[in-house]
Amino acid sequence: MIRRHPFLFTALILAVVVIGGLILHIGYLYVEVGKGIAEGDGGSPTIFYGRSLEIGKGLHLGNVHFTERLNRLAYKRVAGKPSAAGTYSQDEKHIRIFLHRNKIDADTDLSGPVDIGLQDGRVATLTSSAGKELASIKLEPEEIGRIMSMKLDSRHQVQLSAISPYLQDAVIASEDSHFYSHFGLDVLAIGRAFVTDVKAQRFAEGGSTITQQLAKNFFLSPKKTVARKLREAELAVALELRYSKKQILEMYLNKIYLGQTGIDRIYGVEDAAGIYFSKHARDLSLEEAALLAGIIHAPNRYALLRNPGAAKERRNKVLARMQKLDMIPEAEFRRATAAPVKLTSGTAPVHLSSYFIDYIQRITKEEMGTERLYHTGYHYYTTLDPVQQVMAEEAVTRGLETIGRTARRAAEPLQAALVAIDPKTGTVTAMVGGRNYGQTRFNRAVDAKRQPGSAFKPFVLLAALSQSLAGKENWTLSTRVSGEPISLPTPEGMWSPSNFEDKQYGMLTIRKTIEDSVNTATTRLANDVGFQNVLDAARQAGIKSPLLPVPSLALGSFEVTPLELAYAYATLAAGGFRYDPFSLYSVTMADGEPIISRRLKRRQALDPRVAYLTGYALEGVLDRGTAKDARSLKIDFPVSGKTGTTNGNRDSWFVSYTPDVVCAVWVGYDAGADTGLTGAAGALRINARFLRAFYSQAGPEPVIAPQGIETALVDPESGYLATVLCPQTFREAYIAGTAPKETCPDHPVNPVMDALRSKIQDAKEFLRGLFK
User: Fold this and answer.
1) How far is CA 480 from CA 502, 510, 555, in A?
2) Given this model, what pLDDT does residue 263 score?
């Protein structure tokens, strides 16, 4: 019969082949998931790497602690010419290094040692073993941290019977309400997720069951592709075939990611129960179980120790879901939702770099998704400079010890934050978020919104100097403004700023206004320039926090973060180029498969002449102004910077920069108590420690003025061209064509002729007025 119908015969053979293939494939998956689960107790650690040091001409190897870096990277010093990778030799004029890696890129063959020629400690020449001149070379990146647990699972695995039924139900309610009725896939959830994804035009919602989560987190990379979703589905079915529902739930609860302490992640409900509640998983109450279940989907967003308010909100949503599914009665639901969040703090490492590693994980959470729950073997390539990080940590730790002796006491420890940025590359090179990561994981460098006070004033200066370019007003650094008291109307009534210690001023130059941080003169300048223009200048530099064009804006009344302020100053240090915050190059699997790859973004936001003049003015803050204590702190090289102190001494700021580094430091109490510290008495001390370590051997190279800048010798008091009779003179810088044309009226060379010229000018003005 079949032979009479070749089509049916072919179809039957094809069906047998397909069914046989499916059976074999399912059998293969059945074996593989078992093998994968068995082998899954081990794995590679997730490693975080710092940036690669680039060595180019002009770099001072003493300042970057070059030999220290080589030792940290396990290079061995040898006598004579290095002949093996990982070795180097050194004398007064040369360092010869055989890099661990044979090739830096496809075009540069470094199969032998590189000769680094030195002159006064700086790189003068770079020559390959083949005699080819090189522009630069890079050391390999140094490890800065890792997920310490070498296993993918909890340190303390428990059987399902040792896990609170409340927690089992809470997890099912939160993650997969049809867990006991589906066969690995929830068709309705997949459909809802598909509709959401189509609307968002991306993988916005997963629709994954607990079994799928177990499959994708155990066997698959985080790349969100259609092929991966199909693979996830078949693995989920294979898991359901091989294991019972209770076994799947037990594995899931023992391996789920539930936050972290330091750079150690918390895996499994038994560890989480111990760290968060000082209990075993079997003893968790209903509200505690719902709290843990509530952070599974987005553990960083609902981090318990960082944001208990958000955790409570999430917990109550899980409780509501449990009540809707008839897992708990109405009375229990009401009692549990009214209960406060009670937590205990787990033990955490005290590495201050953990603040940065936390930050990296936070900014990658959307791209990594929850797929990283208990995968290991990721390699994060970051911008952190390990040597600079040590300098920053030392500066904060030792600086707070010193500052704390003079600061006003409060009911909490004095805190500090530090951010360092390389203005040549726009990368974060050091970050300290507080005095002790083990005590508090709140990252003040990134998350603390504080008023910058006078540290905002450079943006007033930017706005004023930009008026010359726009052809509106000829504001220069020697233009004089009044420091007399000023009152301006606001929606809350008249506002009258006061100066530090209520000091009174008369007429003074804009340079003097910035150097001495004169509030009345700065406010008057901002009012003349226009508060909207000041706001626009701050935006152009990179301030993104909410601002309003009101008088108090000029004195830094609106809150910013240290990272944000550091990047705004980096725009000045980079000659007007504004960078988007950048701290991560890439994330890869252990085998090098890329997961995330990022590119630096920058644009010319400010005219380079205006950026240069602002920096030139800010050098005077350390030479003669509010930060002149920097010289007694052994900062004896050119640095631009600005102090900041807010009302009631709540915030102490100092932001500095050179062509090589921007360093923003904040000091204060979290609750805003009076520190008794000005910017110079507090933050400057930490900043100076960092700068001394950064320039341990030699100061920075001179800043080169851009085209279109001219200088003139002026009287610093009057702002006019100096005469031979001026007791003091200063070499001031200007946008070409804007330097003063008249000589100092306070110290005329020929008093009689100058007086006569003045009378004639007065007469002209009088006659002009008569004929108007």
Assistant:
1) 21, 6, 19
2) 55
